[in-house]
Amino acid sequence: MSALGDTLEQFVAACNHNLRLQEMNHDWDRLILVQPDDAAEEHWIRYHAGVAAVVAADGEPDLIVEGASGVLVSIFSGASTPTEPYMSGDLRVRGSQDDVMRLDIIALLIWGE
Amino acid sequence: MKTVVSVSLGSSRRDHAAMLTILGEDVQLVRRGMDGSIERALDTIHALDGHVDALGLGGVDRWLTVGPRRYTVPTGERLAQAATDTPVVDGSGIKAVWEPMVVQRLVAEGIVHAGQTALMVSALDRYPMAAALDTAGLHLVCGDLMFSARIDYPIRTLAELEELGQRLVPEMVKLPFQQLYPVGADQDAVPDPRFLSHFEEADVVAGDFHFIRRYLPGRLEGKVVLTTTTTTADVDQLWSRGLSTLATTSPQLDGRTFGTNVLEAALVAASGVQAPDSRWEDTVRAAGLAPFVRRRPAREDA
Fold this sequence. Notes:
A: alpha+beta; five-stranded mixed sheet; B: alpha/beta; Rossmann fold
């Protein structure tokens, strides 16, 4: 598995380990496509009933997260926060504004301060 | 006579002017809405700098103080720095000193009491009010994640509010302010019925009126709303939904209550003292401020 794939597996495990996130996302049912723009790979995450899972391609995504592999690994591993790369355009997230903000909050709550 | 202008990122439809006598000074209060445009706000502050006695920032905070920590909001800081001669205030001095006193008065007058549930629509921008309600023995429900991010997660303790603030605020304040707070036309939008259960659970609904208005439920019987920045139309809307008691932390002038930034600007203009000067609390106390409290008009009971 690629470094990004490994990182997303860890990200999903961290989401599911966090009871507060499970409660916050109890009503959030979304399909997320994570797509590096410098590698021929794509990854899908489904959030359902407060639980996240890495899944196979499964229809139209609600959120598309794009950027260089290194940027995506850095954000989903918690090495950097998503806000600045998002504001600078290094991280592109397509979806509703509320969903984009929620993903941002999830990352901040998992990886902390 | 002193003149203060509140430069607000909010809707220009709420613009108005009024006179207030405070600390023996007549102060003209003017509110100018920028309809969400930061560039217009910067230009306006530049143009007014040195020509008025104090400026207020509306629709945006310069600082968020959550427990022992203070976070700078880049948009508010940029606007404040646009003036070099005239003091610029964001209402945080009023929120820190005066609003907790208002809660204490409401408790003393039996308008709110221990054991009630208080929904603070946004507590990160009004931590001292939230802390005062908590100290008074009300059960806090802080709606920051609900009303700013549409995440149905009530924050029920000050400790969790502080912890979430520590994790989220330093990053969230980097986002465009309009993603977190209704500005411009959003201030006139039709209320959103989400989060109705949290309003129903509450005896007291407190905090920023734009958040309250944006999610205002159809019925408010038996409830107290503690807020500021209301117009005559806003108040009519609250009575028509059966509200029992309206309390605002700023005085009512010509049917409107001003934002905390306007009140703070008026105090700074009249006294020359600005928070965090050690004389600020005494200045607020000396001003003889009083909250505006009104029970439901009798005609609404008919």
